[in-house]
């Protein structure tokens, strides 16, 4: 779906990405892990052309990304970005105006724009906020409105930079439910997060970054079976391994990823 080949990027004299090569498969959920300054956000911003690599190439559906206006417009139809801070994305007077901005710039008919706006607001559970001024929204509502604006573009890939940061439990669950439904409908998701437990449960694949490089790529179990990636283990896996090491559980090869799975193992 998307491939980065040897991309390098610098902020002035500081190297943010160094020879990063990653292949993103269609229809999967990816968790992007790493400490602050590891290069996660910089990498994500390359995926829809917000940043342009100093060297290396980005490919979308096998086609090399170029950086003229027409090519970037096409790329951004396919790859949407939800920023960590929704204030960065919301700039129109009302929620409906903000969500309609992207589809309108695609030159769609009024009827199609209205359909996309209504569908995306309903998908995010905020249709009743349609005419609400964006500056009167709570942080959680702003996050949902920003996600609705991306969904309205009907992208094949959505890049998520710390999408649950600062959310209360209710809005966190709402956002994760939206992502699950999108993925069920075939949308590829790439989520940067510091929440190890969430990443372990949620992701099909994990990408670990360190000092601007890719330190590891694999399934959650593959990643956490490596001891040299400088990331802590999720609590479910840590408890499971300790119980086995103390002879309190038998290793049957079914390593739990969810709390309920671990509880079932405990009987």
TrEMBL record:
<dbReference type="InterPro" id="IPR050095">
    <property type="entry name" value="ECF_ABC_transporter_ATP-bd"/>
</dbReference>
<dbReference type="GO" id="GO:0016787">
    <property type="term" value="F:hydrolase activity"/>
</dbReference>
<dbReference type="InterPro" id="IPR003439">
    <property type="entry name" value="ABC_transporter-like_ATP-bd"/>
</dbReference>
<keyword id="KW-0547">Nucleotide-binding</keyword>
<comment type="similarity">
    <text>Belongs to the ABC transporter superfamily.</text>
</comment>
<dbReference type="InterPro" id="IPR003593">
    <property type="entry name" value="AAA+_ATPase"/>
</dbReference>
<keyword id="KW-1278">Translocase</keyword>
<keyword id="KW-0378">Hydrolase</keyword>
<comment type="function">
    <text>Part of an ABC transporter complex. Responsible for energy coupling to the transport system.</text>
</comment>
<dbReference type="Pfam" id="PF00005">
    <property type="entry name" value="ABC_tran"/>
</dbReference>
<dbReference type="InterPro" id="IPR027417">
    <property type="entry name" value="P-loop_NTPase"/>
</dbReference>
<keyword id="KW-0813">Transport</keyword>
<dbReference type="InterPro" id="IPR015856">
    <property type="entry name" value="ABC_transpr_CbiO/EcfA_su"/>
</dbReference>
<keyword id="KW-1003">Cell membrane</keyword>
<protein>
    <recommendedName>
        <fullName>ABC transporter ATP-binding protein</fullName>
    </recommendedName>
</protein>
<dbReference type="InterPro" id="IPR017871">
    <property type="entry name" value="ABC_transporter-like_CS"/>
</dbReference>
<keyword id="KW-0472">Membrane</keyword>
<dbReference type="InterPro" id="IPR005876">
    <property type="entry name" value="Co_trans_ATP-bd"/>
</dbReference>
<feature type="domain" description="ABC transporter">
    <location>
        <begin position="2"/>
        <end position="236"/>
    </location>
</feature>
<keyword id="KW-0067">ATP-binding</keyword>
